[in-house]
Amino acid sequence: MAVHTSLSTAVDAQLARTPEAIDFLETKFGPYPFDALGGIVINDPRVGFALENQSRPIYSAGFFSSGGDGSWVIVHELAHQWFGDSVSVNEWNEIWLNEGFATYAEWLWQEHQGTSTAQKIFDQNYSNTSSPLWTVPPGAPGKERLFNRSVYVRGGMTLHALRVTVGDEDFFKILKDWSAQKRNGNATTAELLALAEQVSGEQLDQLFNDWLYGTTRPPRP
Question: Helix H segments across the chain?
Answer without folding.
Answer: 9-15, 18-29, 71-82, 96-113, 118-126, 149-166, 168-181, 189-200, 205-213
